[in-house]
Amino acid sequence: MSQKDEQLKIKLSIADRVYPLTVAYSQEEGLRSASKKIDLMIHQFEENYAVRDKQDVLAMCALQFASQNEQKTIDTTDSYNKAVERLIRLDEALDRVLSKKI
């Protein structure tokens, strides 16, 4: 079995709770990084908004991550649409130039 296919047993701590997981080797780094980001965000929410209920803090973290993901999707879609529009204008300009030479 290759290292990529290997399953690892890890423990992640989120909001002062430990979660044992069995994950693919390739997922470990991403999960550990996400766990750290969640804990950092929890700390920031608790300090800046005086929220003490972990469920409320976790809900705000989930909303923050989801909105960041949605914004990336929107930005990517906008960039894609702008690129397509530029390619269409370029294609039209090339057609005009090529049609004049014939």
TrEMBL record:
Note the Pfam families from the entry: ZapA
Q: Which domain of life is it from?
A: Bacteria
**What is the designated name of this protein?**
Cell division protein ZapA
